[in-house]
């Protein structure tokens, strides 16, 4: 069966790249012909642009623009190493459509042919960003006579604005089957009077540890705490330094920019190194959803802190569902509880049931074509 998926597959983020790969890999291993739609609208295509002005105050005149670009250029040129690492991952692991599309209109006019279309996973429906308002991520471009379904689509927030509610409802109602990654997403859809949605696991859980080992095959023979921090969080820094004092472990990071307190930074490495670093770590501290997911896959001691941006339903719901809610912490943490080994037995039992349910959902969608 021919299947097309659409997601934020190429945004230079470890989790985004890996979830795109995971859904495609699972479907291919199930015997299907699968392509990820190479969808690159303008708002997802400006990464590592050497000449972009990110702050409006520098756009007032040509002198300020020139000064800004001169100051930024050395850092941006260095950052291209990271871009190249992600581009290599995309080239090696993701099977993209031959055509690249930049708008929902282009997709309609030159429809990538498939029997079934999946939108998801990741934050494709996050209305705090442009992708959550883009009809392409709701498969609006797919004709009514084709099978259309979401897989583990994420709103990433607890509610959507009233001005978007009707638009989202109409778009989701066109889908033949609806699944979301967080139980909070099911609640959002119920408020929109969409009652047939289900909660499924992130696609990276659909692949077993042995499959991920083939990608995360870099050997890192040191004892370290791994940091993946989107906010330069003082809490993450405090935790890392305290655990380092108690254990003697070094501090490593996979942040695009090296944090001052880390011993070694893998700033320019791609998703393969991200998996390898979690796989070989002694402890993981992050505000990343997929850092939590891969810590669970590899049964690593970890803690998660909330992001400054209001997109914390992802971590909260994941940890709550798997009875790991104590791993989401704040400044009132007890360090002795933090460094206590996690018992993953109950978590894995719950997770295996959820994975079975999620695979059944996919099979149900694909059977609609028959």
What features would you highlight for this structure?
370 residues; alpha/beta; five-stranded parallel sheet; 12 helices; 12 strands; 41% helix; 13% strand
Explain what this protein looks like in three dimensions.
The chain has about 375 residues and is an alpha/beta fold. It has helices at about 15-30, 60-95, 105-110, 160-175, 185-190, 210-215, 235-245, 270-280, 290-295, 315-320, 335-340, 345-365, and strands at about 1-5, 35-40, 95-100, 115-120, 145-150, 180, 200, 225-230, 250-255, 265, 285, 300-305. The strands form 3 sheets. It has a 5-stranded parallel sheet. A 5-stranded parallel sheet has the order 10-9-8-11-12, with helices on both faces. Strand 8, helix 7 (about 235-245) and strand 9 (about 250-255) form a beta-alpha-beta unit. It is globular and about 60 Å long.
Shape: globular
Structural class of the secondary elements? Answer: alpha/beta
Biggest sheet, strands in spatial order? 3-2-1-4-5
How many strands? 12
Largest sheet: 5 strands, parallel
Secondary structure blueprint with pairings:
Blueprint: E1 2-6, H1 14-29, E2 33-39, H2 62-93, E3 96-101, H3 104-109, E4 116-119, E5 147-150, H4 162-173, E6 179-180, H5 183-191, E7 198-199, H6 209-215, E8 224-228, H7 234-247, E9 250-253, E10 264-265, H8 271-280, E11 283-286, H9 289-297, E12 302-304, H10 313-321, H11 335-338, H12 345-367
Parallel strand pairs: 1-2, 1-4, 2-3, 4-5, 6-7, 8-9, 8-11, 9-10, 11-12
